[in-house]
């Protein structure tokens, strides 16, 4: 059986088991057959269909049972089918005996495991502990004017997830609001109204949308089963259209006026129900939101356009064009190069009320990536309350089955002031359960954060003797131009301080304080970067014949270990363009060759060199050919060597790491625009004597191999370079900075 077909059958089975479990809970209080009674029927298929139709007609829960009912009606009436139904029923009976597991979204976890190719729609499902942390902090950040002990006040809340999947974030929001209500009632010595608030939240407050009907089915069940003894008359959970003859764009279309066309059936149709009890096609108006929680789809349009990658290629191109047109028509502030996540944030911004809360799971590049600039532009109208990053090795994300670093963001839609501080939570170890997550949130809320501008002090997030990480405050509006990513890029607070000072051209060493200042300038003021590797592929092919066009090809950690390298490849200009590409002029590309190579990407656990100098100008696929701005070839050669020393010094490496574009933890990239904005030591301001010291050090170490970055504290070559810069700049020894770097999880791949 083909893998895709097997996956479909497995998800269909999960939907059936899910409905069976919920039938069992309903039968405990309604005149509905129990699961055991239905399984004893001679025709279990017909029996389940009848019971589920009865539930839909007399009780509701249509989003849960309509999908399952249609699955059953698609099955043949054969002995094998009946046997399979009874087997699924036995599994449902076993699971239903453990209601606690169901309260923690067990079925959603199974769904995520079955949907192994979650990237089909660019969909990634939030880990339950991460969802708990995010929504607890979001609810805590909601304006205090809401009376959390009053059900009528809570009833006014509107919370939505525009790409809800199986409802993990919505369920976490439900739990967090109930927790807030209980805490406030206990504080005021009142009895909580748990059932009433549960019903009100599901019927009125919670809205969810997704393009996968089976995910909506599980989201409905997950929310309802949180308290299965409470009758729910309606739900606002919708399967929305993606593609089709009209090139529909799913819940993105909500931004076109807060209205969404709704069709009749959840299964096999474009849309979900207008309301769970409606049988007529209509339009649903989306309310103004108080909280928008999302882990939006993440597919990007670089290195081949993968936007809407779950759609057939021809239809996908039409849908991509439709998205571009829609963005132009609606003037959404988004960049599709960053992916659909940027678009969903722009849509959510339009739906949020003033003082509303954004609770987001996004790629970590949102903090620094150039393609995310429009999104950060939206965030300028928000108070950035929390930035939560994971520094746990090989656990850099907050979603299941992803391969990139993520952050949790909590923002309040209110113009920030000069006094507002953002709390950065740098997790050294992620909570593994919801209970650990709640304990972690409690520790975050009761622990005074360290101040990044203070010369000392570390605030640890601890609970029951376990350290989850460190917490610090950063004022992003104090006129110091602190990058958003700076305090999220290191696990250790002291390294965040070092980076913060270096960003202001000041040198901070833990235990010594601020020990000096250096004069810096942007790299683009002193050097020019050559063509991108993609351009090289469009103009050249690799050849084993010696040609005019030399290159440094690849970044072999075993081979490239010195500050001075030789080209390792030759290129031959193409005659014809590659399929689907435009031919680039080899002469134009070659005129931009350089002899200083700056790394385009690094795998920190094994690499050792950031910049290296070649004996002649060359091109590269994974290095940026760089030329010092000077007409004098001798001066250009000298300055490029001095610049390579800076980049391979501890201070130079820190400038790279503190604003890096993090792809996946220790795997980091440095785009051209990023390099052009990068601050470097202004070598033009050094004296002849200072430059002589740099030149002498270069000559002494040019043929020596560096140790990999995890051994930076043991590397005699790096120590020699640092000693030279300490002497040149009048600084104390930089040994402590190398020690701190060697302990960073992204380098050591160990928790400090």
Structure characteristics:
752 residues; alpha+beta; 4 domains
Report on this structure:
This protein is α+β, with helices and mostly antiparallel strands. Helices cover 39% and strands 19% of the residues. The strands form 8 sheets. Strands 2, 3, 4, 9, 10, 11, 13, 14, 15, 16 and 17 form an 11-stranded mixed sheet that branches. The protein is globular, with a radius of gyration of 29 Å. The two termini are 47 Å apart.
In a nutshell, what does this entry contain?
The chain has 752 residues and is α+β, with helices and mostly antiparallel strands. The protein has four domains: 18-97, no CATH class; 103-416, Vaccinia Virus protein VP39 (Rossmann fold, 3-Layer(aba) Sandwich), CATH 3.40.50.150; 417-495, no CATH class; 523-748, no CATH class.
């Amino acid at each position: 059986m083909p893998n895709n077909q097997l996956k479909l059958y497995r998800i269909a089975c999960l939907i059936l088991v899910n409905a069976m479990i919920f039938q069992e809970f309903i039968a405990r209080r309604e005149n509905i057959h129990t699961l055991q009674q239905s399984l004893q029927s001679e025709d279990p298929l017909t029996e389940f269909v009848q019971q589920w139709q009865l539930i839909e007609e007399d009780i509701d829960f249509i989003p849960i049972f309509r999908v399952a009912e249609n699955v059953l009606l698609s099955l043949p009436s054969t002995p094998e089918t009946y046997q399979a139904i009874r087997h699924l029923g036995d599994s449902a009976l076993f699971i239903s005996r453990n209601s606690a597991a169901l309260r923690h979204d067990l079925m959603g976890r199974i769904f995520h495991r079955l949907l192994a190719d979650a990237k089909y729609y660019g969909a990634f499902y939030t880990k339950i502990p991460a969802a708990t942390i995010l929504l607890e902090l979001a609810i805590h950040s909601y304006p205090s004017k809401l009376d959390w002990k009053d059900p009528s006040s809570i009833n006014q809340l509107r919370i939505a997830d525009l790409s809800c999947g199986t409802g993990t974030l919505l369920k976490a929001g439900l739990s967090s609001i109930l927790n807030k209500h209980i805490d406030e009632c206990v504080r005021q010595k009142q009895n909580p109204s748990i059932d009433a608030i549960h019903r009100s939240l599901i019927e009125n407050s919670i809205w969810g949308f997704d393009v996968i009907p089976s995910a909506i089915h599980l989201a409905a069940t997950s929310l309802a089963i949180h308290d299965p003894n409470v009758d729910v008359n309606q739900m606002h959970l919708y399967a929305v259209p993606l593609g089709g003859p009209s090139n529909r764009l799913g819940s993105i279309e909500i931004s076109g006026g807060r209205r969404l066309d709704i069709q009749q059936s959840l299964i096999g149709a474009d849309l979900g129900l207008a309301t769970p009890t409606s049988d007529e096609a209509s339009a649903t108006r989306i309310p103004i939101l108080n909280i928008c929680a999302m882990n939006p789809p993440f597919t990007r349009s670089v290195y081949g356009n993968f936007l809407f990658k779950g759609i057939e290629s021809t239809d996908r191109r039409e849908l991509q064009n439709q998205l571009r047109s829609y963005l132009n028509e609606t003037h959404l502030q988004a960049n599709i190069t960053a992916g659909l996540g940027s678009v969903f944030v722009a849509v959510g911004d339009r739906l949020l009320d003033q003082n509303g809360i954004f609770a987001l799971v996004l790629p970590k590049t949102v903090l620094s990536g150039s393609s995310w600039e429009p999104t950060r532009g939206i965030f300028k109208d928000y108070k950035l309350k929390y930035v939560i990053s994971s520094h746990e090795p090989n656990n850099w994300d907050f979603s299941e089955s992803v391969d990139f670093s993520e952050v949790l963001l909590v923002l309040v839609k209110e113009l920030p002031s000069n006094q507002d501080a953002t709390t950065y939570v740098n997790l050294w170890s992620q909570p593994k359960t919801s209970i650990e997550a709640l304990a972690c949130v409690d520790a975050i809320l009761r622990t005074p954060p360290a101040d990044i501008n203070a010369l000392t002090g570390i605030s640890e997030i601890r609970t029951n003797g376990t350290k989850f990480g460190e917490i610090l405050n950063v004022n992003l509006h104090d006129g110091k131009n602190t990058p958003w990513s700076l305090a999220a890029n290191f696990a250790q607070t002291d390294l965040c301080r070092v980076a913060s000072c270096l960003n202001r051209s000041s040198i901070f060493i833990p235990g010594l304080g601020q020990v000096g200042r250096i004069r810096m300038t942007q790299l683009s003021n002193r050097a020019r970067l050559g063509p991108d590797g993609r351009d090289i592929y469009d103009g050249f092919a690799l050849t084993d014949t010696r040609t005019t066009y030399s290159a440094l090809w690849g970044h072999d950690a075993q081979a490239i270990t010195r500050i001075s390298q030789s080209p390792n490849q030759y290129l031959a200009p193409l005659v014809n363009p590659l399929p689907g590409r435009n031919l680039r002029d080899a002469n134009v590309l070659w005129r931009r060759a350089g002899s200083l190579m700056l790394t385009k990407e690094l795998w920190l656990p094994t690499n050792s060199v950031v910049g290296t100098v070649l004996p002649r100008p060359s091109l590269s696929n994974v290095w940026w050919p760089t030329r010092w701005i000077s007409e004098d070839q001798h001066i250009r050669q000298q300055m490029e060597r001095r610049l390579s020393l800076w980049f391979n010094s501890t201070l130079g490496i820190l400038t790279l790491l503190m604003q890096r574009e993090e792809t996946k933890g220790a795997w980091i990239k440095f785009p051209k625009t990023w390099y052009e904005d990068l601050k470097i030591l202004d070598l033009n301001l050094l004296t002849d004597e200072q430059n002589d010291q740099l030149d002498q050090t270069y000559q002494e170490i040019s043929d020596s191999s560096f140790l990999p970055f995890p051994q930076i504290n043991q590397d005699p070559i790096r120590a020699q370079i640092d000693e030279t810069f300490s002497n040149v700049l009048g600084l104390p020894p930089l040994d402590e900075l190398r020690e701190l770097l060697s302990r960073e999880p992204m380098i050591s791949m160990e928790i400090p």
